[in-house]
Amino acid sequence: MTTMASSTATPLRALLFHTSQPPPKPSISRRFSLCHHHHIPLIIPQKTTLNFPPNRHFQLTIPCYATRSSSNRKNSGLVSVEVEDESESESFRRKLTQAVLWVMEGVYIVWLFLLPFAPGDPVWAISSDTINALVGLSLNFFFILPMTNAVVGIHAIEAPVLHPMSEGLFNFVVAWTFMFAPLLYTDFKNSRYKGSLDALWGLQMFLTNTFLIPYMAIRLNGADVSDYPRKPSQLGTVMIKGAPVVGLIGGAVCAISILWALYGRMDGDFGNLYERWNFLLSYLGSERLAYAFIWDIVLYMIFQPWLIGENLPNVAEDRLMFVKYARYIPVLGLLAYLLCLKREVVEELLE
């Protein structure tokens, strides 16, 4: 009877529930996606054949008590599992993309921070004028201080008077960076980044792609058994709950930045549109900070549709096609994603 029972047991059942003997030496691994696409590896014994066709997905239901499941499954202890077989070509492309990102990080740091060949001063020879300009731009963050002086009439601290083109460029990039926070906290691969997402985003607000490029590379790591959904921090909870508000604030500041660059401080001696455009070209060719912002804008135009595209399951189904195509539009695509998050996804991430 024992022999007959063993011969009729399926390989998957034997794999999942038979524990009396140690498993043979593993030869291949498959990735399983649990609850909101978080991955754990399943080691399949060498002599076990599941006969899955390549590059196909299958839905299974197995007992699982070690992960956070949705509310309608809490009592049953069951969780849907998606089997995904990564082909050799897919693995090669993933590793090649990682290598390109790490090379990009090295070029970004060496070219923009260390070498003297790019416009402006490198970080080791930064001038006092550049430092003063950076302090002034920081004081005019999100145009809060200029608006407080001009609109509210409070002059406890006077806003530094800088060229509106430089102020507009600075606040545009910072506001776009601000909008990336909810996207990072809802990224289903963020558990592969073992560091603090709070620190990552905080440093990104000051040094932009210096820290976002490594994150983009690390999130491409192969699935690991420790890649369970992380409990969001207090900042993460605020960003996930308030994703639409973050999107609206960031989008509004980006729009104001463009208008401010073109029409701000018209009572000052900053010239007409043609003169402001000439100043921008001169600014980009003489200041390292402005030159770096152009790099950041280009990289954000790549990373925004990339991240949104891999997190489209977070979007409400009736708005999915809109976000799918809008994600390529700078800033507006990210705003669309933040406004169209599923309520169920937000609740699951905050459990």
From TrEMBL:
Keyword tags: Membrane, Transmembrane, Transmembrane helix
Transmembrane feature ranges: 99-119, 131-157, 169-188, 200-218, 238-263, 289-308
Matches recorded under PANTHER family: TRANSMEMBRANE PROTEIN
Name this polypeptide is given: Transmembrane protein
Protein species of origin: Chenopodium quinoa (Quinoa)
